[in-house]
Here is the input.
Amino acid sequence: MDKSVFRKETLARRKATYSAATDAVIIETFLESDLYKNAEWIMAYVSFGTEINTHDFIKKALADGKHIVAPICNIEDHTVTLSEIINFPGDLEEGHYGILEVREDCLRIIDPKQLDLVLVPGCAFTKAGHRMGFGGGYYDRFLETISDDCITAALIREDFIFEKIPMEAHDKSVDYMITEKCLSCCPIQED
Here is the structure.
């Protein structure tokens, strides 16, 4: 299975089947979970395109007193820098790839080891939590820098969980997935 073809076809299907209502159910399930309730420092991607919409989640988490951290993509070396968000969307501006990123005058850099929970975006996942990203390798590199006890979770529509996806040795998996059919957070079982 060719990874680039699979990614292109999956992204096209995601665009054709996008549902804001499904996103809202996934976010509500996450907000009701112990994963959310027990986390103090949460890294959340700022959604773009067909990703699960995280904008309302970020606003809610800030109102709940959570520390929300957003990624900043460094296109030169495909790494990620982290900055705490205090005001959403006021701290952000359009950055690389058209994704909202923290403005330079609002940077509050934090160490990845400070995170309790990372919401990991992905194009597709397997039932075992294996992830195929969007092709830049940013998150695969970043996930190597978090602490061993930091939890990783994916917000993903059920239709984009596959039995098998094209993967490479460097592709990182997630600990949990939250879907519209999952009434609670679903721990991932090993293959």
The longest strand covers residues 67-74. Residues 3-187 form a domain with the Rossmann fold fold (CATH 3.40.50.10420).
